[in-house]
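U., I forgot to send this yesterday:
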Amino acid sequence: MDWIQLVFGEGKDLNALQMTSRAVVVFFITLALIRIAGIRTFGKRSAMDNVVIIMLGSILSRAVAGASPFMATVTGCLAFVLVHRGLAWLSLYSDLIGKFVKGEKACLYANGSFNEKNMRKARVSDKDIKEGLRLAINEESIDHVEAIYIERNGEISVIKKK
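Result:
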């Protein structure tokens, strides 16, 4: 038991060896938590995914620095990740939950006109639309566009005319 105290320490008064040891262990714990959360957590960057990223970083840093009890911090993060995974799973089967945790797409342009209301709601400007056009179809002109959407993850998607 003395070696655990020596290597990992206790409380906030940690030396370099103890904080380094904690950081290595927390790295692997974080990797496991990310695997539990699922691959999409860092792939799509939805609002819900960003919450997990920010919260895991914030909470797990407390375990490294000794600001909170180590096991309580890790189990709290595990609970957090399981809630995330559960909500993601439920959103597969419930549009209501999906809309709440992931949001929903909004049409910004269709039938030759812009939807100003949706643009304001999404805080998207004409310049943002042009950026989306350049990124999606390598054009600035809207002449070949059927519709433009802001997707649930905040990206602008473009549907070209046939």
